[in-house]
Amino acid sequence: MEAHALTVRMLSPLTFPFLVLLVSGGHSLLAVARGVRDFLLLGHTLDEAPGDTLDKVARRLSLRKHPQCFTLSGGQAIELLAKDGDRKRFGFRTPMGQTPDCCFSFAGLRNQITMLIKKKEAEEGVEEGTLLSCVNDIAAATQHTVALHLAKRTHRAVLFCKANDLLPSDNPTLVLSGGVASNQYIRKALMIITEATGLRLLCPPAKFCTDNGVMIAWNGVERLREGNGILPPDVDVSYEPKAPLGVDISAEVRAAAIRLPSIQLKIPN
Question: In this structure, are residues 60 and 111 in contact, taking their beta carbons and an 8 Å threshold?
Answer without folding.
Answer: no
